[in-house]
Amino acid sequence: MDTEIIHLAPHEVWIVRRQHKCFIRYDAGAHTHIWREDEIAAADADAILAAPKNTVIDAIMKVLRQLQKQQVNAPKSNWCRE
């Protein structure tokens, strides 16, 4: 099981590629850490990774808004360290 994890510094966001799927790992909490890892389209992962540093947060927020519309962004952790 090959896993590729790419940290998008300085943001607390990672793109994870595992088992031919793409995920975005992020802190969904406001005052406390609520770690989430949600599946995203490969095209969205590629767009985030290809975005210039000064606009990467816009690409990240676009994907997170899409997840929120799907009601995926519940304030409940679904990720734990491997």
Structure, explained:
The protein is of the alpha+beta class and 82 residues long. It has one domain (3-69). 28% of the residues lie in helices and 29% in strands. It has two helices and four strands. The chain has helices at 42-50, 56-69; strands at residues 3-7, 13-18, 21-27, 35-40. Helix 1 packs antiparallel against helix 2.
Features of the shown structure:
82 residues, alpha+beta, four-stranded antiparallel sheet, 2 helices, globular
Stretches with pLDDT under 50, minimum 5 residues: none
Discrete helix count: 2
Largest sheet: 4 strands, antiparallel
Q: In percent, how helical is the residue content?
A: 25-40%
Give the termini distance in whole angstroms: 13 Å
Percentage of residues in strands: 25-35%
- Shape, principal axes of CA atoms: globular
Strand order of the largest sheet: 1-2-3-4
**Would you tell me the structural class of the helices and strands?**
alpha+beta
Query: What integer is the average pLDDT?
Result: 84
Radius of gyration: 12 Å
- Give the ordered list of helices and strands: EEEEHH
Integer tally of domains:
1
Number of E-state strands: 4
Set out the fold topology:
Layout: E1 3-7, E2 13-18, E3 21-27, E4 35-40, H1 42-50, H2 56-69
Antiparallel strand pairs: 1-2, 2-3, 3-4
